[in-house]
Amino acid sequence: LDFDNVEIQTFIKAxxxxxxxxxxIDKQVQGNITVFSPQxxxxxxxxxxxxxxxxxxxxxxxxxxxVIKVLPSKDAREKNIATLLQDEAGGLEDRLITRIVKLKVxxxxxxxxxxxxxxxxDSIVQAYSPSGILIITDVESNIQRLLKIINALDSELxxxxxxxxxxxxxxxxxxxxxxxxxxLPPKEVAPENQRGRPALSKNVQILxxxxxxxxxxxxxxxxxxxxxxxxxxxxxxxPMVYIEAL
Length: 246
Description:
This protein is α+β, with helices and mostly antiparallel strands. It contains seven helices and twelve strands. The strands form four sheets. It has a four-stranded mixed sheet with strand order 6-7-9-8. Helix 1 (8-19) runs antiparallel to helix 2 (43-56).
């Protein structure tokens, strides 16, 4: 692939010739794109790159019989996009789909509050409490990430008094900070000579979300207040030096 600032319609035509797929392009699909690949890739890989380029520019693909429609993502939700149940295999493509997720014990409304900050502005998360399900419309690759978060949250912990919180970080790395916080001693086993150190309940759960650099915390009000104080002390701007070299 070697496209340097070419019209997106030219790019779509080239992908069609490369993959043998037929495209119908919405008149709103306009602009120029640049894509470089340092080595040869297969037609399947090229199509995934194609979907990623569309997604990055606010467009997506919608299969319609023998053709594939290319249109703005905001309009695709009204079309016949693919709908997958929880046990149906998906993929890591950047196409827009709707995924139906059945929760085991979690509250759909509570899990929705966690997911809302983690999806793009054009995506939708709907909660249907009577059936205990979530309906998510987003690009397939992002839904796979959300499913990992949902599975972690949908546990026996939502049966107690714990609540779910999303804490976006400004400077610290979410994955590294989560490891540090999980190493805090639990209250039940804190030694007598360490009573002054912060201690958490053993049912606290901290899940880092790399894409948004946020911490997803399941904890009681008391534990979350303690975690907030600790995170604020650790989430600070590190001293940096700016160097220009020739």
